[in-house]
What we know:
Shape: elongated
Order of helices and strands: H
Amino acid sequence: MAIxxxxxxxxxxxxxxxxxxxxxxxxxxxxxxxxxxxxxxxPIAYPDPEQxxxxxxxxxNEENATESEPLILPTD
Length: 76
């Protein structure tokens, strides 16, 4: 009786899982690299030089509409 060797084709489950894990690691490493590269290619928005009047964000001139005096808590 001659022993015939049968060649198996394809990958085992362990090999497929390892290949998938390696591919996912490469993808998760490539995402931040791509985002930083893509962000550098975006045009920079410069302010309009003709806009002279800018409203101050916090000018310190806020008004308090209450008529009661502020309560200052004592320190211990």
